Automatic annotation (TrEMBL):
The keyword Nucleotidyltransferase applies. GO terms for cellular component: cytosol. This is DNA polymerase IV. It catalyses: DNA(n) + a 2'-deoxyribonucleoside 5'-triphosphate = DNA(n+1) + diphosphate. One of its GO terms (biological process) is DNA-templated DNA replication. HAMAP family: DNApol_IV. Its EC number is 2.7.7.7. Pfam families: IMS, IMS_C, IMS_HHH. The lineage of its organism: Bacteria, Pseudomonadati, Bacteroidota, Flavobacteriia, Flavobacteriales. Keywords: Cytoplasm, DNA damage, DNA repair, DNA replication, DNA-binding, DNA-directed DNA polymerase, Magnesium, Metal-binding, Mutator protein, Nucleotidyltransferase, Transferase.
C-alpha cells in the first residue's frame, strides 16, 4: 500500500523595487530613470533602488556617496513611509481575499498558505498569477512570486524570474532545483557564511548535500542541521498569520556627524521617546535594551543590557541607553544612533496547519 505524501501550497509574494516603484508611479517624471529612495549624495544610506539604478550596482544599504559614484545621474528622493504603508495595506487586503494564512515579512513581501483557500482554487500557480494581476490592475505596480511546498523554497523561487515574474517549484522538483543553485542564493546564507562554505569547497546546493550532518554541525554548529535539512527541501515552518515581533526599534541618521557624547545624549532622549510611542501603540514591553552606533566610517557597533524586569518607559530606555553609551569610548564620530528593545513579553501563538496532497 502506497503512502500518500502531504504537502503545503506556499506562495511568497515580493513587490518589485517597491519604494522606488511607488515613487515612479506617483511621479511620471521619474519613470525610466535611475532612482534611489533615502539618503542623498552627501549623507545617508540608500533604502531602495529602481531597476534602472541597479544596473549601475546601486543597492539598498549602500551609502549615498557610493551610489552617486556608481551612477552619476542617480536621482535621490526622500522616503514617504505613510504612502508605502497605504499601498501595502491595499495589497494585504487582496491577499486576505484568498487566505487568512498571511505572514507579512515587511511592507513589500509576505508568505501565503493557500493549501486551503477561499477561492477553492486547487492551483497555487494560478492563484499567484491572479494576485499579481490584481496588484497591477488595482495599483499599477508589479510583483514577483515563488510557489512551492515550503517557505524556504518559495522565497528563493520568487527571486528567480524578477521583476514581474513567478516560478513554481513542484514537489518532485525541489531537490534538483536546490542542488543546482549557487549557495549564495540560499535564503538565510549570508555573506560571511557563503565565504566560509566556499573555503570548504561548498559552492552549490549539490556540494552542500554531499556533506554529512556531522560534518556540517562540526563546521557550522547549530546551523549545521538547518543547512542539512534545507538542501533536502525539509523546512516545516508554518505560515504564521500573527507574526510576533522579536524586537522594536527606533533610530536616526544625523545631518552632521556627532563627536560629543553630550550631543548624543540629547539625540538618544528623542529616540527613546519615539521608541516608547511605538511600544505603547502595540502594548509591548521588553527586558533587553540595545544601543546601535554607526560611525562615520560606516562601521557598526551594538551594546546591550538585559534588565530583570519588563520596561517600555522612555525614561528607563534613555537611562539604559545612556549607560551603554558611556560603556566605552567612541572610536570615531557618529552618524547614526538607535535604540531597540527585545526579549519581549509577546507570546508565540501556535498555528495548526492541515496538509493535503495537491497539484501546483
Amino acid at each position: 500500500m502506497e503512502t500518500e505524501v502531504l504537502y503545503r501550497k506556499i506562495i511568497h509574494i515580493d513587490m518589485d523595487a517597491f519604494y522606488a516603484s511607488v515613487e515612479q508611479l506617483d511621479n511620471p517624471e521619474l519613470r525610466g530613470k535611475p532612482l534611489a529612495v533615502g539618503g542623498s549624495e552627501i549623507r545617508g544610506v540608500v533604502s531602495a533602488a529602481s531597476y534602472e539604478a541597479r544596473k549601475y550596482g546601486v543597492r539598498s544599504a549602500m551609502s549615498g556617496v557610493q551610489a552617486k559614484r556608481n551612477c552619476p545621474d542617480l536621482i535621490f528622493v526622500r522616503p514617504r513611509f505613510d504612502r508605502y504603508k497605504e499601498i501595502s495595506k491595499h495589497i494585504r487586503k487582496i491577499f486576505y481575499e484568498y487566505t487568512d494564512l498571511v505572514e507579512p515579512l515587511s511592507l513589500d513581501e509576505a508568505y501565503l498558505d493557500v493549501t486551503q483557500n477561499k477561492k477553492g482554487n486547487p492551483s497555487a500557480t494560478l492563484i499567484a498569477q491572479e494576485i499579481r494581476k490584481r496588484i497591477f490592475n488595482e495599483l499599477g505596480l508589479t510583483a514577483s512570486a515563488g510557489i512551492s511546498v515550503n517557505k524556504f523554497v518559495a522565497k528563493i523561487a520568487s527571486d528567480y524570474n524578477k521583476p514581474n515574474g513567478q516560478k513554481t517549484v513542484n514537489p518532485e522538483e525541489v531537490e534538483d532545483f536546490l542542488e543546482k543553485l549557487d549557495i549564495k542564493k540560499f535564503y538565510g546564507v549570508g555573506k560571511v557564511t557563503t565565504e566560509k562554505m566556499y573555503q570548504l569547497g561548498i559552492f552549490t546546493g549539490k556540494d552542500l548535500k554531499s556533506k554529512s550532518r556531522e560534518y556540517l554541525e562540526e563546521h557550522f554548529s547549530k546551523s549545521g542541521l538547518h543547512y542539512y535539512n534545507i538542501v533536502r527541501g525539509i523546512h516545516n515552518s508554518a505560515v504564521k498569520p500573527n507574526r510576533i515581533a522579536k524586537s522594536v526599534a527606533a533610530e536616526h541618521t544625523f545631518n552632521e556627524n556627532l563627536t560629543s557624547e553630550i550631543f548624543m545624549e540629547e539625540k538618544l532622549q528623542r529616540i527613546a521617546e519615539e521608541l516608547e510611542r511605538r511600544l505603547k501603540k502595540y502594548t509591548i514591553t521588553g527586558k533587553t535594551i540595545t544601543l546601535k552606533i554607526k560611525y562615520s566610517d560606516f562601521t557598526q557597533q551594538t551594546r546591550s543590557k538585559t534588565l530583570p524586569y519588563f520596561i517600555s518607559d522612555k525614561g528607563l530606555l534613555f537611562e539604559t541607553a545612556k549607560e551603554l553609551l558611556y560603556q566605552e569610548k567612541m572610536k570615531e564620530s557618529v552618524r547614526l544612533l538607535g535604540i531597540s528593545l527585545n526579549n519581549l513579553n509577546t507570546e508565540v501563538k501556535k498555528t495548526v496547519v492541515v496538509q493535503l496532497k495537491f497539484e501546483f
